[in-house]
Write a structure and sequence with these properties.
Number of helices: 12
CATH architecture of the largest domain: Roll
Structural class: alpha+beta
Mean pLDDT: 85
Strand content: 25-35%
Radius of gyration: 30 Å
């Protein structure tokens, strides 16, 4: 409820220098999940302090004072929660977990999917005036092994437990009256969820003020110009304007040098893919995402929308892998995004990164359950179902034009790839590696310098003076383009036997538009798809659709667990093959197939039009969940896809 800090530097010669605490800058790093509820509830904030002229041998003398009212007997102190499955890939004859707890302690425990419950071991417990403790145990015997299966969520499908030990005593005389240790089998209380998380979108900082001030002025100008027709337009433009300011503050603003901590709360790091080549280690680097702090985003979005008279809510949910809402035991299991409702639809908006598009689906929100927390009146919360995307929301489409070389040994390929929804996530960062998208952002959401009001503000309303312009010059652009081409070339090598990678062209960056499609064109030459057979040639045409899932024999026979697909999705290939002069195509009729059921589909067609063989395939995962009894549906269309990938046609000499 209060906090004070004093720092003093003691030099080697004994001189004492008081540090000016007014120079401290608020630290907006992401709060560790386990501490989030406490910080939101108590409005705890971090500050960072730069101390000039520090030298080796200097002594930093500091004094920190703070007071927090915390009722041990009501809330206690919880240790790290444990959430795990009892299932193993080998048979388990016997496994036991024991807890020994003194007076004033409890264990919060829940068992799921047939896992055994805790029992008290009276023989191992001690009840006395000087020493008193209770032993509890969980015994699991004769458990059959489970088989690892694709698309399975372990905690949803197998016997699992969640538990946490909580200490209620605080060594005062009254703690002796708390009684013996107990097992708490209750689930989470929604009122506790509300109290702990409502503050996540009310966390004002100077960075939040800056984002809101810029977005408010931009939206006001657009309203005056008549370019915003409805609330959906306003919600979308606020989202993109906040993204622009965040990126500008990162790449050009005053916090650039220390942004890993100050803005994102996550280290800006590069993934290092290690590949052993002989005795040397070869490293390839990818630019990773830059994501805004989730609390900063929630507060900035809610405040910016409220200025425009649009209410938003905090959607607190349990990730699907941990269970349904009825399975929530700990606050630590929960996460949140923002939810905004217009007349047209509900928007679920995650704290954006530099590539996220407005209202794009997120795989980790698919079918989750949670509660919406409102801000237009106190104590407003209600049960809410998370979003579910369709197969057409998450589409991968590849259009091929294939020509044989004169020697008939390789094929030249021009391929246009279009990705939407979840399908973009693995490619969008590499495709935009040159950062050309920043110039578009900075130009579209540009505010004239000095147009923001500069009158003296209250401390809680202070903003950061940001540098704004209509463009972005990337000094490393040529190097990044080269790196991008090398990474895209590697991806093609992972798909095919590549002879030469020729070119890459970005057509759409995947960050704007209703579908927000990522679209790019590649040119490359492939080998080992054509083999000579006398006067004719055999062409492995099925390999052009990429690797397909090959089910093991055990998978063909039965399914033990329910099927948890990350999300519905569609994969399309449209292939145009130029038939060499003097040849005809045999066997293309076998490429026509159709398997379509309630769970998925694989449909392919092939036809000759003039000197072209035209092939189309469409593979669809229609749901994000199915009961195990419907596994034969998956076997049917997965097997059809794999069979097609092995198909060949004959180029027959006339």
């Amino acid at each position: 409820k209060d906090g004070q800090a004093e720092y003093q530097i003691i030099k080697a010669n004994g001189k004492k220098i008081d540090v000016d605490m007014k120079s401290a800058i608020e630290e907006e790093s992401d709060i560790p999940a386990i501490y989030r509820p406490i910080y939101y509830r108590l409005n705890v904030k971090y500050y960072k302090l730069a101390i000039p002229d520090l030298e080796v041998g200097d002594i930093i003398d500091y004094n920190l004072r703070s007071t927090i009212d915390w009722d041990m007997k009501e809330s206690g102190v919880g240790f790290t929660p444990f959430i795990f499955s009892l299932a193993n890939t080998y048979s388990t004859m016997y496994q036991q977990y024991r807890f020994v707890m003194a007076n004033g302690m409890k264990v919060r425990f829940r068992a799921f999917n047939g896992a055994p419950n805790l029992k008290m071991d009276s023989k191992a417990s001690v009840f006395g005036d000087k020493e008193s403790y209770v032993a509890y145990y969980m015994l699991d015997k004769d458990r059959e092994k489970t088989r690892e299966e694709r698309w399975s969520l372990e905690l949803r499908n197998t016997p699992s437990v969640k538990f946490r030990v909580i200490m209620l005593a605080d060594n005062d005389p009254d703690s002796k009256d708390l009684g013996m240790a107990q097992v708490d089998r209750t689930f989470i209380d929604i009122e506790d969820v509300y109290k702990h998380y409502v503050g996540a979108a009310m966390y004002r900082t100077t960075t939040v003020n800056t984002l809101v001030a810029y977005a408010t002025e931009y939206i006001s100008k657009k309203k005056e110009a008549g370019s915003l027709k409805n609330d959906d337009d306003i919600i979308r433009e606020i989202y993109y304007c906040l993204r622009k300011v965040f990126l500008e503050m990162y790449y050009k603003g005053p916090v650039h040098s220390d942004l890993e901590k100050f803005m994102t709360g996550k280290k800006l790091y590069k993934k290092v893919l290690k590949q052993q080549e002989k005795d040397n280690q070869h490293k390839e680097e990818r630019e990773d995402e830059i994501r805004i702090n989730s609390v900063l985003f929630a507060t900035a979005l809610r405040t910016s929308l409220a200025v425009q008279g649009i209410q938003s809510e905090l959607f607190v949910y349990i990730p699907r892998r941990l269970g349904a809402w009825r399975d929530v035991v700990f606050l630590d299991e929960l996460d949140f995004v923002m939810k905004v409702k217009s007349k047209r639809r509900n928007y679920f908006l995650e704290a954006f990164n530099n590539f996220d598009a407005f209202a794009s689906p997120y795989s980790y929100l698919e079918g989750v359950e949670g509660y919406s927390i409102g801000y237009d009146e106190p104590n407003k919360y209600y049960k809410t179902q998370g979003p579910t995307s369709s197969a057409d929301d998450n589409k991968e489409r590849k259009d091929y034009e294939v020509n044989f070389t004169d020697a008939m040994d390789n094929v030249n390929v021009q391929r246009v790839t279009m990705l939407t929804g979840h399908e973009k996530s693995g490619k969008i960062g590499v495709a935009n590696l040159d950062r050309s998208y920043l110039s578009r952002d900075f130009e579209k959401y540009y505010n004239q310098p000095g147009s923001q009001k500069t009158s003296k503000r209250k401390k809680e309303d202070e903003v950061i003076d940001i540098t704004t312009s209509t463009g972005y010059e990337n000094p490393d652009k040529d190097e990044k383009i080269k790196e991008r081409n090398e990474l895209m070339e590697k991806d093609v090598k992972d798909e095919f036997d590549l002879d030469k990678y020729v070119d890459f062209e970005l057509i759409e960056d995947g960050r704007y538009g209703d579908s927000a499609a990522l679209k790019y064109k590649e040119m490359f030459r492939l080998k080992k798809l054509v083999s000579k057979a006398g006067r004719n040639y055999i062409f492995d045409v099925g390999k052009l659709i990429g690797d397909q899932i090959k089910l093991e024999q055990s998978e063909l026979e039965k399914r033990e667990m329910d099927i948890w697909i990350p999300n519905a999705r569609a994969i399309e290939n449209n292939i145009t093959i130029i038939i060499p002069a003097g040849y005809t195509v045999d066997g293309f009729q076998e490429l026509n197939t159709s398997v379509d059921n309630e769970s998925g589909a694989f449909i392919s067609t092939a036809k000759i039009e003039g000197d072209k063989l035209i092939i189309s395939t469409r593979k669809v995962y229609k749901k994000n969940f199915d009961k195990k009894e419907l596994w034969p549906n998956y076997v049917a269309f997965l097997e059809a896809g794999y069979k097609f990938s092995q198909a060949k046609v004959v180029l027959k000499k006339k």
